[in-house]
Design goal:
Layout: E1 2-7, E2 13-18, H1 24-30, E3 50-53, H2 57-60, H3 65-74, E4 81-83, E5 97-100
Parallel strand pairs: 1-5
Antiparallel strand pairs: 1-2, 3-4, 3-5
The chain binds FE2/S2 (inorganic) cluster.
Residues 25, 38-40, 42-49, 70, 83, 85 line the site of FE2/S2 (inorganic) cluster.
Length: 106
Amino acid sequence: MLKIKFIQNNGEERIVETYAGPTLMEAASAVGVEGIEAICGGSCICGTCQVYVESDVAVVGPPGEDELIVLGETGVQKSTSRLSCQIRLSESFDGMTFTVAPPRKG
Ligand code: FES
């Protein structure tokens, strides 16, 4: 069992209990974390599942080439940005915190 904290756009914190295996987006969507729209269903196209990594970035790893392009198109990218649909959860994610990115611009 993993516990992951999401900080939503409205400032509210959500603790999500999940497990290793699904993507971070799937874990967030399953319980309705606000702001994780995931319009493309995890295909690394829409950029509406963006999060900012608030914990150890090394655990999450860097974004891939395609992911970087999509992140750059959102207009709200930070150095710690990742697409949550591209993050596969493992036991190492227990206790991590992610801030949900604001809606993309344009
Ligand atoms: Fe569309 Fe992640 S769900 S890019």
